[in-house]
């Protein structure tokens, strides 16, 4: 790692995780260690905080986690450059949201990306289309990288076919250490910035909210996690919990013992999931880093993946990662806030992308996606449940090939399940609960203008 140019805090963080791996630590959190949280401050209680938010917005910036490639959808490019809707990528939406915010506030709110060595060049090239976002603050920084680990020897994995695949970003839990070791944290503090709003680049609902900023300021919160009520579709996402002393913590699916997975997915017991929208007070983060040798000792996540993520037949390795939300258990005084579901609109799978591309959502003038008012669900309105056969819809190009005319109308759809190779024509409408099954090897065609509902599917 020294030869690679990684700074001492990154090496210390790697060794911290590696020692845990060597001693047999699993990174797992049992139900006895992760107790449910019953009550949180609600976003609806924040009326009046916008006054402080407007006063302090000059001290705020926006940071997007952008270390991942779109490999889960079969694309070897930064996830932020995936076409989402109307020919626009995640990056296009982010840039336009920030531009609109700046126009409305008549203030310049910097936008910054935490890139990985995989994503930086393409992301910066795409950002050149938005010169209005430049203001002298660096548009990005590159997070640290860790060697992937051979599970048999616990030594760094070797892959001569593509040596770059021997390395991985250590998860977005690395954000504050990377911000510090690049020198950007000190530069931001010297320039008068005190607050940062962090979120995933693929969350189209995550925008800087003046009320939440005001709440941070007035209550002197060092770190704030936005959480939302869990639904069945969120049952495998990281949930908020607390320890026996009442300290908040985040438990990810990969940190749950296999025997307790049913309990992990109990949305009545664990009511709140992590949106990965975080707010941080930069001076408090700097102080916490100083007290921990320049990195945050977050709970580890040991992910087993193929050494080449684009080829599942390649040897399995261990990627040592951590989640930014786990900072809630390390930063003294950290808190959580329940927010509306609209602040969480991620696109992780092809099913998510199909829903976002459909008429379930519409785009507002501030370039946010909001639920179509024609959506028929009872309150609180939610998106339909969609399951597409991964054999035929697992990758982005598969989705394009089987929906060549775009997404069908889903505004009146409650659920859609597609099994087998099914290709959709133009102006197809799905209503109610629909299941389409094609057991044949040859593709099934849904003709143009077809309306499918509970009665004919």
UniProtKB/TrEMBL annotation:
The keyword Cell division does not apply. Keywords: Nucleotidyltransferase, Transferase. The keyword Transferase applies. Belongs to the UDPGP type 1 family. One of its GO terms (molecular function) is UTP:glucose-1-phosphate uridylyltransferase activity. GO terms for biological process: UDP-alpha-D-glucose metabolic process. The lineage of its organism: Bacteria, Bacillati, Chloroflexota, Caldilineae, Caldilineales. This is UTP--glucose-1-phosphate uridylyltransferase. It comes from Caldilineaceae bacterium SB0662_bin_9. InterPro entries: Nucleotide-diphossugar_trans (IPR029044), UDPGP_fam (IPR002618), UDPGP_trans (IPR016267). Substrate binds at residue 172.
């Amino acid at each position: 790692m020294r030869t690679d140019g990684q700074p001492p805090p990154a090496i210390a963080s790697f060794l911290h995780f590696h020692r845990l791996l060597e001693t047999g630590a699993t990174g797992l959190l049992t139900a006895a260690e992760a107790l449910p949280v019953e009550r949180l401050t609600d976003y609806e209680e924040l009326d009046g905080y916008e006054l402080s938010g407007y006063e302090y917005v000059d001290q705020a910036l926006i940071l997007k986690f952008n270390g991942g490639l779109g490999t889960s959808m079969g694309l070897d490019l930064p996830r932020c450059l995936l076409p989402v809707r109307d020919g626009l990528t995640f990056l296009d939406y982010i840039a336009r949201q920030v531009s609109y915010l700046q126009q409305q506030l008549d203030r310049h709110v910097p936008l910054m990306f935490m890139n990985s060595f995989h994503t930086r060049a393409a992301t910066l090239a795409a950002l050149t289309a938005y010169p209005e976002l430049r203001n002298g603050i660096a548009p990005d920084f590159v997070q640290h990288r860790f060697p992937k680990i051979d599970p048999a020897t616990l030594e760094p994995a070797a892959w001569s076919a593509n040596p770059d695949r021997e390395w991985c970003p250590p998860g977005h839990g690395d954000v504050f250490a990377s911000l510090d070791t690049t020198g950007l944290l000190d530069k931001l503090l010297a320039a008068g910035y005190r607050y940062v709003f962090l979120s995933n680049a693929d969350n189209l609902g995550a925008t800087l909210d003046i009320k939440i900023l005001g709440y941070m300021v007035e209550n002197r919160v060092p770190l704030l996690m936005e959480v939302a009520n869990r639904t069945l579709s969120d049952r495998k996402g990281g949930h908020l919990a607390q320890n026996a002393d009442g300290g908040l913590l985040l438990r990810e699916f990969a940190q749950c013992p296999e025997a307790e997975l049913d309990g992990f997915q109990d949305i009545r017991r664990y009511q709140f999931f992590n949106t990965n929208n975080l707010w941080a007070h930069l001076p408090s983060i700097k102080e916490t880093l100083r007290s921990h040798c320049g990195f945050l000792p977050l709970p580890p996540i040991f992910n087993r993946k193929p050494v080449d993520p684009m080829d599942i037949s390649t040897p399995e390795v261990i990627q040592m990662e951590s989640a930014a939300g786990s900072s809630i258990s390390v930063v003294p005084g950290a808190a959580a806030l329940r927010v509306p579901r609209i602040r969480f609109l991620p696109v992780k799978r092809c099913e998510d992308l199909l829903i976002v591309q459909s008429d379930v959502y519409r785009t507002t003038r501030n370039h946010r996606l909001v639920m179509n008012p024609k959506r028929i669900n009872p309150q609180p309105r939610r998106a339909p449940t969609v399951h597409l056969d991964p054999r035929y819809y697992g990758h982005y190009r598969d989705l394009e090939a089987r929906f060549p005319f775009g997404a069908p109308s889903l505004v009146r759809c409650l659920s859609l399940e597609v099994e087998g190779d099914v290709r959709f024509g133009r102006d197809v409408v799905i209503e109610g609960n629909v299941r389409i099954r094609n057991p044949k090897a040859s593709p099934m065609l849904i003709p143009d203008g077809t309306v499918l509902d509970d009665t004919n599917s």
